[in-house]
Amino acid sequence: MVTLEAKNPLLKNIKIAIDDIISADRQTTDTLVITDKLRHDLLKRLVTYSDKIPHPASGDRTNPHTLMRWQILAYVAGIDLTIAKWFESHLDALSILHEVGYSETAQGLWAIWAAEGHPDPIRYQQGKISGSKSWCSGANIVDHGLMTYRDENGQLQLLVVNMQQDGIKIDNGAWQAVGMQATDTATIQFNQAAASHVGAANAYLERVGFWHGAAGVAACWYGATASIATYLIKGYQRKPHDFKAMYLGQIGTALAVTQQYFRHVAHLIDSQPEHSHELAIRQLRVNVEQLALEVIETVGLALGAAPFCGNAHFARLSADLPVFIRQSHGAFDLQKIGELSSTLASETINESTNGQENIWQL
């Protein structure tokens, strides 16, 4: 039997490196009590692998790079969702820079900050920015921020900002979350800080990689969900019970179906890298969101309060995951899926449905 690590040797190396750090802290992954120091040590080690982790849509049938990337993100998320949040944002920023043709070497820790709506929006003039940006995770720890702003014509632009300079004030006061509490999410106020344009106007949203990156976030959700589910396997093995077996069958089936859909979408991206695959990725994200909530609820029914109260790793994942999946857009995502499905169905003969009258026909 070919193991996952044999198919993804980079993942194997990362696992060994992370296990070494956790073991040196005299802990194990499934009972991990994480401190700020340990969290940052793990992140620092992960970042050293950045240039080896493939960008989405860079693989083929022999080298499934997109799936390999997602497997790494899912593994990290199964350890700690705060680290996964930072590391996914870092990797996504590097992939965006690659896609828009950034020519400089992207060293250090990066983050992508794209939330809009602050009453004091970012303004850019002659290489300087002023204004505020909300929902900036990792604000105090990143070396560089890749940030969106609207120019005077309403077009979305990308800026690179060195966070190690004057003219930057970071306010964590608005972040009251219990789940994902440690993500260092802040509002950043800029006052004539140096910044530089990257890419063309609206490139951030219009590039095909926008949706490829959105699927990477779902891989994080899935990794944490699968990690929570393993506690039910261990609980059943330790103390078998018919109801535990039933619940395990329920979530095991759901996990297996979602796992196969990840592989299908990863293959789509690698085999058709010029397409965004927005519909498939929106459907994937909705599916993972529903799966995550189902697994948290079902494992709780099967095992009771004990792991929520007595296991730091389980309790942290269970508290963090419902907050992290709120990066989805709920009803808006379902609305867009409906609109895209309707458009696809109206195309009586098209390549993606092979001329089928029903887009869901086998």
Describe this structure in words.
The mean pLDDT is 94. Strand 4 and strand 5 form a beta hairpin. The chain has 12 helices and 8 strands. A 4-stranded mixed β-sheet has the order 1-4-5-8. It has a 4-stranded antiparallel β-sheet with strand order 2-3-7-6, with no helix packed on it. It has 2 domains: 241 residues, Butyryl-CoA Dehydrogenase, subunit A, domain 3 (Up-down Bundle); 93 residues, Butyryl-CoA Dehydrogenase, subunit A, domain 2 (Beta Barrel). The radius of gyration is 21 Å and the shape is globular. The chain is α+β, with helices and mostly antiparallel strands and 362 residues long.
Helix content: 40-55%
Query: Spans with pLDDT under 50 lasting ≥5 residues?
Result: none
The CATH topology of the largest domain corresponds to: Butyryl-CoA Dehydrogenase, subunit A, domain 3
Average predicted confidence as pLDDT: 94
What Rg, in angstroms, do the CA atoms define? 21 Å
Structural class: alpha+beta
Write the CATH architecture name of the largest domain: Up-down Bundle
Largest sheet: 4 strands, mixed
Count of the separate structural domains: 2
Determine the N-to-C terminus distance: 30 Å
CATH superfamily of the largest domain: Butyryl-CoA Dehydrogenase, subunit A, domain 3
CATH class of the largest domain: Mainly Alpha
Describe the secondary structure blueprint for this structure:
Elements: H1 4-7, H2 9-24, H3 36-47, H4 65-79, H5 81-99, E1 110-113, E2 123-125, E3 128-136, E4 144-150, E5 156-162, E6 168-171, E7 186-194, E8 196-198, H6 203-206, H7 209-238, H8 242-271, H9 278-303, H10 306-310, H11 312-324, H12 330-346
